[in-house]
Amino acid sequence: MAFEHKVKAFPFAYGSQKGISELTDKRHHDTHYAGYVAKRNEVEQKLASADRTKANANYSEFGELKRKETFNASGQILHELYWDVLGGDGQIDANGAIGKAIADEFGSFENWKADIVATAKSSLGWAILCLDPSDGRLHNYLCDSHNQGAVWGAIPLLALDVFEHAYYGDYGPDRAKYVEAYLSNVDWKKVGTRFQIHASHLGKK
Q1: pLDDT (tens digit, 9 = 90+) per residue, 21-78?
Q2: Radius of gyration from C-alpha coordinates of the chain
Q3: Cβ(143)–Cβ(150) below 8 Å
Q4: Model confidence over 120-135: pLDDT tens digits?
Q5: Which end of the chain is more exposed for a tag (fewer CB within 10 A), N or C?
Q6: Is a pLDDT exceeding 60 seen at residue 1?
Q7: Which residues contact 64 (CB under 8 A, 6 or more apart)?
Q8: Which residues lie across from 156 on neighbouring strands?
Q9: Is the pLDDT of residue 87 over 70?
Q10: Do the Cβ atoms of 185 and 20 come closer than 8 Å?
Q11: Which residues contact 8 (CB under 8 A, 6 or more apart)?
């Protein structure tokens, strides 16, 4: 029997993050994110009884379900991380583990910020700060869709949603203002905790 994924409660009061409205929060969480969770469950249920004998690369029900499986699963996971690292003031401790790692990789936090902003402006879907175990380095990866552009094994530490549903109600086409608003709410202690947990597994300090 397929596992039933649950919608996580919104972690803050709607509209409590600077520059992101209550209406946007409700639509983003209650409609878009909850929709990915619901469709992930629906896809997994259908996969349990899908006809595998007719699997085909051109078209088959099984193949299309498998494509939507990763789309909705990744949509759920990335949205949960999107909110998990909020609740702060956007200020990073330069002497903390994540602050030092970002400075080592990008030269400075300001350089990292310029890079994530450029990545967010270029992406159709996500800009994601990741720890990549293939080289032990931090990267800002661009994902045009939830399941397109990810690097196998890379561990997301911060996920910035730039699909239009995340900002159009507040900023219209001015994505840059939304990106600035999102980054001003990041709790870098939470990001740093994620980094330290995963870096320790790679033998990084």
Answers
A1: 999 999 999 999 999 999 999 999 999 999 999 999 999 999 999 999 999 999 999 9
A2: 18
A3: yes
A4: 999 999 999 999 999 9
A5: N
A6: no
A7: none
A8: 130
A9: yes
A10: yes
A11: 80
Helix axes 97-106 and 188-201, enclosed angle (nearest 10): 80
Neighbours of 85 (CB within 10 A): 24
Report pLDDT for 2. 58
Tokens of 54: 């007719």
DSSP state at residue 7: P
Q: Classify residue 163 by its DSSP letter.
A: S
Apex 169 CA angle, 168 and 173, nearest 5:
30
What pTM was computed for the model?
0.94
Show the tokens assigned to 185.
């709410």
Q: Quote the CA–CA distance of 154 and 136 in Å, as a whole number.
A: 9
- Ordered by where they begin, the domains of the chain are 22-84 (1.10.287), 97-201 (3.55.40.20)
> In this structure, what token pair is assigned to residue 109?
């936090």
Q: E strand or H helix at 128, and its extent?
A: strand 126-132
Q: How far apart are CA 104 and CA 95, in angstroms?
A: 12
Cβ-contact 164, 175 below 8 angstroms: no
Residue 75 · residue 146 · CB < 8 Å: yes
Total count of residues recorded for the chain: 205
